């Protein structure tokens, strides 16, 4: 059940929607694209995010990797539809689509802090490419598609703790500045992501051997020689343990905030998604992907709970 090919096949059973986000004729009522942010897809992202938090708290890297695999599959499909809707022009309203999706794609990047290693280079590289393409396209959206599909008489808004006019000059300048920064950061990150995919051609044994010769990202600022009586592996485990706890706590707060941002933005703009409910395959299948990921992660973490209990998990008592 952890094979991403299985999830890709499952998602291929979904019937695509032909409705991009757009205003109805002679109206300010918005009809949303359920293929991008339908209830099933949103729940899938949220469940995957909470799965990642559970994995962070328990230090279960295998589960974190599985979460990222599932997110990669869904994010790749969503990104393709986003680009398609934006490029088609016409009455499509891509700005709102990108703003709703952004928080959902943002959180999984936190996982990379704990997965960056030669052993996990391939899955991190795949996610990195998706995230980098998303970042590289931001100026295209905010400088050339800002008003596509908009209506002067309508009042779209975005929720950032409070509702803000989507075309508030200060907010627009902020979005444009962020889009440039994201584009500049994504370019070099794309090179590292491609390198990660290139490393995927090596065997697991070769990658683990490469990891064994490196202290790793989390120990880059620690002088191992100053820590007496502990092996490198034990120090790595301790640092990862406490970083996992802190990032897990940070993740809970972050996910809740991002969920509120997305849900409030959709509700504040009264986006109509009634045509796609969980009773249809287009929403049921992504929801099941997220649900199975969550249940699988929780089950895996429970089975390995003793490995995350203080110093005994690191073999310090032996």
From TrEMBL:
Signal peptide residues on this chain, from the entry's feature table: 1-22
Protein keywords: Membrane, Signal, Transmembrane, Transmembrane helix
Residue ranges of coiled coil: none
Domain of life, per lineage: Eukaryota
Transmembrane segments: 36-58, 70-87, 93-115, 122-143, 177-200, 246-263, 283-302
Name this polypeptide is given: Uncharacterized protein
């Amino acid at each position: 059940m952890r094979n991403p090919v299985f999830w890709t096949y499952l998602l291929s059973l979904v019937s695509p929607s032909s409705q991009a986000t757009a205003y109805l004729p002679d109206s300010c009522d918005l009809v949303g694209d359920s293929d991008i942010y339908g209830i099933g897809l949103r729940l899938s992202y949220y469940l995957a995010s909470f799965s990642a938090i559970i994995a962070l708290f328990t230090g279960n890297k295998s589960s974190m990797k599985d979460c990222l695999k599932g997110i990669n599959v869904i994010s790749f499909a969503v990104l393709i539809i986003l680009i398609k809707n934006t490029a088609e022009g016409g009455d499509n309203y891509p700005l709102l689509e990108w703003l709703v999706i952004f928080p959902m794609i943002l959180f999984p990047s936190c996982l990379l802090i704990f997965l960056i290693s030669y052993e996990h280079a391939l899955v991190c590289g795949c996610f990195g490419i998706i995230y980098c393409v998303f970042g590289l396209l931001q100026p295209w959206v905010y400088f050339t598609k800002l008003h596509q599909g908009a209506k002067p008489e309508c009042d779209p808004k975005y929720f950032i703790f409070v509702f803000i006019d989507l075309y508030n000059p200060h907010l627009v300048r902020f979005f444009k500045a962020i889009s440039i920064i994201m584009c500049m950061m994504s370019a070099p990150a794309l090179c590292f992501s491609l390198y990660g995919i290139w490393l995927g051609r090596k065997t697991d044994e070769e990658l683990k051997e490469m990891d064994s010769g490196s202290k790793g990202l989390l120990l880059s600022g620690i002088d191992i020689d100053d820590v007496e009586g502990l092996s490198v592996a034990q120090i790595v485990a301790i640092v990862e343990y406490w970083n996992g706890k802190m990032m897990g706590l940070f993740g809970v707060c972050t996910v809740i905030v991002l969920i509120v941002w997305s849900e409030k933005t959709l509700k504040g703009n009264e986006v109509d998604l009634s045509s796609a409910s969980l009773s249809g395959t287009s929403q049921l299948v992504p929801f099941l992907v997220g649900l199975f990921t969550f249940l699988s992660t929780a089950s895996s973490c429970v089975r390995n709970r003793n490995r995350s209990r203080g110093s005994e998990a690191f073999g310090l008592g032996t």
